Amino acid sequence: MIIISFIVELMGATMLLLFAVRMVRTGIERAFGSSFKRVVTENRNRVSAGATGLVLAIILQSSAAVALLVAGFSATGAISFGVGLSVVLGADLGSALLIQVFSFDLAWLVPVLLAVGGGLFVKSEQRKLRQAGRIILGIAFILISLRYLRETMDPIRDSTFLPVIADYLATDFLTAFIVGALLAFLMHSSVAVILMCVTLVSIGAIPVAAGVSLVLGANLGSAIIPVWLSRGMKNAARRVPVANLAVRGSGALIALYVINKFGLLQYFGSETSAQTLINTHILFNALLLMVLIFAHRLERPFLKFLPDDLPTAEEQSPLYKTTLDEAVLDKPHLAITNLKREVLRMIQLVETMVTPVMDIYTKYDPDRARMVLSQDTFVNTALDDVRRYAATLQNTGLSKQENKRVREITEYAIAVETAGDIVAKRMIPLAKEMYEKGIRFSQDGASEITNMHERTKANLLLASNLLVSDDLESARLLLEEKQEMARLERKSRKRHLKRLSEGVQISFDSSDIHLETVGALRDFNSHIASAAYPLLHRGGQLLETRLIEQDYDDLDVRQR
């Protein structure tokens, strides 16, 4: 019974520690996640990249999280192999320094952290302040979990079985190393494992020799985590995590052998102090930074081990290749044309997303739905490229008119990307909900939605033509279509509510999805139609937010 109670308390303390570490990391990612790509990818020097990785690991409380960030950026070519590996090696040291901070006696700080963090999280309505409260609460929970872990282990340190296990791990350092690696991998947090080892050594539950072997094993386990989590990514993304595993894993094995073979623990601190574990951990990861000198030279062997993937049919299509050419940035008229072509490509990608939507609503196909969602990734990447290209272009001394044009194109790219998000994040989930709940539209409701969908596709083509031709009449027509889509959405709502009042059961079942779908189509069309505003404004065809009244025989456009 005592053993069961001990196991439950130990699991509780460990889970609290894992939860607290995750709480801090998610709070930081939610508050500042959008800045991580800029911080990581702006490095071109390996030393500064290592320093960036060190800081990020302390902030995120996980070197594995930093390695996954780097893997994602490597897949898109936003960061080179040498710089990426430098960031990850710096993150390994940052994670080690974090252990030193949490090893201090900070029990007095817990009530303060709980009061401040709880106040911010519960009372604040500002997003960043709430996330700051989450981060502070997470740090408090880490300190509480370490104290709880210490109190859990205290009663059994003088038991009969613990000294046997501890002595065995102290003499069989390879087993202790493997146990440390497994714990770090299973818990997905080397910080939690090493903090636990430090706590156990500090109360005398296990000897320092066993603790050091466990810590070195945790270094290997920590390097395995990003390799495992990135296993489904392209080879370009996997190279840096695999290289880090090779460097850190081989280094950990060498350190394990040398320390135990030559009795070097006495040089890292007292053979009875938990600080020795921390010193060893920090020194080991600091020595690994020597790899920064030749990090870029490691790319060749790992390129052979993980060669570039063969291009898929999608990647071979011109639709999936950027049109942005860095070589013409000194020629503004060509660069602006490139920007327009890239936004045109984004429109074509969004068209491939929205075209099959009604079919997916009618007969849900998981594979087609996944294909639509995968297209959204290409659209998002294209927008990132447009913003980066536009920012670079605006620093080349453009005229006032050229600057304004670049800004207009970038704003429209944002609108197109938002339209893609409407399909991926609103319409596809609605189609899936219909399928899972066995819901279908009434005949009239389906006809109304199909009509709006067809007009939306036609307006996509009109927006593409407008982007190429800068035709004022097309711009007026596109804006007219925006107003017409808003009218159709209102009309569909009224008809739907009328069907509800008449007791049509199928309309009751599909009510929420019907209304959300027509709203999504209206919003989608509004974003696509926003291309018309800059052109009409330049042509003097806008009075505030209204079209100037004109008569067109072909369009019959008239403002009332």
Automatic annotation (TrEMBL):
Cellular component aspect of the GO annotation: plasma membrane
PhoU domain location: 343-418
Segments crossing the lipid bilayer: 6-28, 106-123, 129-149, 161-186, 192-225, 245-264, 276-295
Membrane topology: Multi-pass membrane protein
Molecular-function annotations in GO: sodium:phosphate symporter activity
Keyword Ribosomal protein found: no
Subcellular location: Cell membrane
Cross-referenced InterPro entries: Na/Pi_transpt, PhoU-like_sf, PhoU_dom
GO biological process annotation, one example: sodium-dependent phosphate transport
Protein name: Phosphate:Na+ symporter
UniProt organism field: Litoreibacter halocynthiae
